[in-house]
Amino acid sequence: MQTRIYSGPLSMFGAKAEIAAREKGIDFERIMVPFTTDDAYEPKHPEVLRVNPIKQQVPVLVDDEVALFDSTQIFEYLEDRYPGPAYLALWPQGVAERARARQLELQSDEVFFPNVVRLFGLQHDMQSAPAVAACAACARHYGEMDALLATRDYLAGPYSYADIALYMAHVFADRKGAGMTAATPRLVAWRDRVGERPAVRAVVDSMMCFLASQGRGVPAFLQR
């Protein structure tokens, strides 16, 4: 049975999983679940409910007897299931380097992105204290990542899941008013470098086309 990834047209975490599968050159089927204009996924897809009955969210991966949810768990499975050198390795080779990359991926999801979520619903009042605080927290994270890039092209050394995670989180941050600025030139260059990867472009371009079809704004750096 072909590997299946259940995602959604505006699922940041689903995009992460799909980019990883594309980067590794895996033959998979992408299944987009129903989406409603209030940023919800209704009705819930039966496979999503089966695999992730509590959160009822995408992404979900089904590969023969393996059924997983959560983008990070999907990352880990893909790396174990499709190891190098036949497939592109997306964690660094050294133990310490892998640990650092995993920490960076976690920070993107659990430290940086919650600030982006706080901006949801605040687009009408970006000068409010909560919005200003969320944008400032995003800017601090950008500064920390910019510093990492002083001696490397990617966040953890070689291109990795850490780069996929922050890139996609940043796409949503930019959409919500917390984009990068000239204050972090190395990070802006990193964003452009990651964004030119064919796997990233395929997934993000599809997402931006969906946004445009809904009459929603597309970040300036992704307008082609």
Describe what you observe in this structure:
The structure is a single chain. The chain is α+β, with helices and mostly antiparallel strands. It folds into two domains: 3-81, Glutaredoxin (3-Layer(aba) Sandwich); 95-222, Glutathione S-transferase Yfyf (Class Pi), Chain A, domain 2 (Up-down Bundle). 52% of the residues lie in helices and 8% in strands. The protein contains eight helices and four strands. Strands 2-1-3-4 form a four-stranded mixed sheet. The model has no long low-confidence stretch (mean pLDDT 95). It holds the Pfam family GST_C.
Kindly summarize this structure in a few lines.
Residues 1-86 form the GST N-terminal domain. The chain has 224 residues and is an alpha+beta fold.
List keywords for this structure.
globular, Glutathione S-transferase Yfyf (Class Pi), Chain A, domain 2, about 220 residues, Glutaredoxin, alpha+beta, 2 domains
